[in-house]
User: Fold this.
Amino acid sequence: MTSSKSGPLGRVSQFFYAKSTLVTALIATVVFAGYTVLVLSGQGKAFEVANSTIKSLGTSLGFGQAEILAFFAERSTQQISAYITFNQVWDSLYGVIYGVMYVAWVSVLLKPYSQKVGILNLLPFGQVLFDWLENIGLAIVSSQYLADGTISSTTAQLASTASSIKWAFALLVYGVILVGIVARITRALKGRSKS
Assistant:
């Protein structure tokens, strides 16, 4: 084992490589899908506005102060309060769920290459981290808007930047999963041709 794998991240990475199987990845996917359909979408309805151009700020690739103010302007106090709760509780928990799911899948796909790729299986947690930072920023500007009708441009920019980085991590994760699938198929085909 190399020294890079002996630190805290290395131990977490090795834990996921050791514990992740196709079954655990599938179970994590079922939990993710169930939470998305049964919990998250229901909680999102509490601040939904019919025919609104922005359903939730976190689903857009970055957003400016104008978009945030427009989002709040078409919602009631109760809807903005629900949006704060959504960001602080339900969407933050969603990050944990999808983070574990993606880490499980990446770990399964990269397990034969774990000595070479090291802690790459923890990449999805980068997406979770920036999702949480975005959620914190959005909760702060939402609370400020309810208090005095204004928002901090600095906090809005931080939330928007965190959102953009979150989506960049998401693309990286999908790329790693795709590479992992191709690598495993190639490995299986080479193994078959040798036998």
About this structure: The CA atoms of residues 24 and 143 lie 39 Å apart. The chain has seven helices and no strands.
